[in-house]
Amino acid sequence: MTNLIETRRRRIVMAKLNSMERKTGSHFTLVKLPNNEVTTIELTEEILTKALIKIFEAMVYDSNKRAEAERHISDHYSACMGNKLNKLSPMGMEFMNAVIANLAEQAFEHKGCGNGN
Asked: Quick one: how far is CA 111 from the chain centroid?
């Protein structure tokens, strides 16, 4: 099951990056921070993969038995892909945008803690 999760995770990461490339010609995106500032961040395959593992998968593993968690993760990643090859479904776009927003928020909080705020 782990290989299936890795394969599906990679597909949605690449689909998100490809979508960004088609829309903006880059892997940069605007995100709104908790303090209402807007900033630009660059996303890579590695960053998105780590975000999915730490933000989504860890939460699922924490709240379910391993086999059930793996099935849920795999099914969710599958549902994130649209009918067209290598494109996210509307739910997949919403999910990935939420992961990116969460990632930016966590980075902002971490940065704030590091400089004495």
From this structure: 20
* 23-65 per-position pLDDT tens digit: 999 999 988 877 888 888 899 999 999 999 999 999 999 999 9
Count Cα neighbours of 97 within 13 Å in the Cβ-side half-sphere: 12
Question: Would you say 11 and 77 are in contact if contact means Cβ atoms under 8 Å apart?
Answer: yes
- Separation between Cα atoms, residue 9 and residue 23, nearest integer Å: 21
Angle at which helices 66-80 and 2-24 cross, to 10°: 30
Whole-angstrom Cα distance, residue 4 to residue 70?
A: 9
Report the candidate in 80, 100, 82 with the shortest Cα–Cα distance to residue 92.
80
